[in-house]
Write a structure and sequence with these properties.
By secondary structure, the chain is mostly helical. The chain has a single domain, classed as Hypothetical protein af1432, CATH 1.10.3210.10. The chain is about 65% helix and about 0% strand. Helix 5 packs antiparallel against helix 6. The longest helix is centred in the N-terminal third of the chain and has 20 residues. The termini are far apart. The mean pLDDT is about 95. Bound molecules: 2'-deoxyguanosine-5'-diphosphate and fe (iii) ion (FE) (3 copies).
Length: about 190
């Protein structure tokens, strides 16, 4: 899928506000990719498509989880998680995206996972630090993203886990797996 086609396809799926977020994620992802020797082209495409399924009806997402090879345990967790793995399936089915790295980066952009590759880290992080975001502790993550991708992802995971625990939310195991994995390699 060409980037221009992806932008048009995604604009049709999203609200104006979410579409603008998407464009900021893409700009941020390209900068992070360049800095870390990761394909800027793949980073831009994955970023443009990352929230593709964000506004799909919950019953449709539920159905896609049950009828695809996605893990059914997603249904035991908050429905906010579903748009990421379902988005990967949908851009493949609806737009013929086949690049495994691009699909993986879309799939794991919300939870992360253990052993994320560079592209997955870039999209996970760009979604969190894009200039329109404001979370407690975000400035520290933005600074760290300029120097250490792993450490910045680790900070993001720690903040997110703390936030979710503060809300008494359930936390998808991949988020803990990502956190544990990156904790091992902290310096
Ligand atoms: O789609 P966006 O709003 O751009 O960003 P996202 O896909 O990272 O956010 C989805 C929301 O999901 C975010 O507010 C945190 C929430 N969430 C719920 N359960 C979990 C979770 N995030 C993680 N990482 N792990 C969870 O288990
Ligand atoms: Fe998202
Ligand atoms: Fe299934
Ligand atoms: Fe997003």
């Amino acid at each position: 899928m060409k980037i221009n086609e992806a932008v048009i396809a995604v604009q049709q799926q999203l609200t104006e506000k979410r579409f603008k977020h998407t464009l900021r994620v893409a700009e941020t992802a390209v900068i992070l990719a360049k800095k870390n020797n990761i394909s800027e082209e793949k980073a831009e495409l994955a970023a443009v498509l990352h929230d593709y399924a964000k506004f799909r009806p919950l019953d449709e997402m539920k159905r896609r989880i049950l009828t695809s090879s996605l893990p059914n345990d997603l249904l035991q967790y908050h429905h906010e998680l579903w748009h990421a793995p379902v988005g990967a399936v949908m851009v493949m089915e609806e737009h013929g995206v086949t690049d495994r790295e691009v699909l993986g980066a879309i799939h794991y952009h919300t939870t992360g996972r253990a052993h994320m590759n560079g592209l997955e880290k870039v999209i996970f992080l760009a979604d969190y630090i894009e200039p329109g975001r404001s979370f407690p502790g975000l400035e520290d993550v933005r600074e760290m993203a300029q120097v250490d991708l792993d450490h910045a992802c680790w900070l993001t995971l720690r903040n997110t886990i703390n936030f979710l625990m503060g809300n008494k939310s359930r936390i998808y195991p991949d988020t803990f797996h990502a956190y544990n994995d990156l904790t091992t390699s902290l310096n």
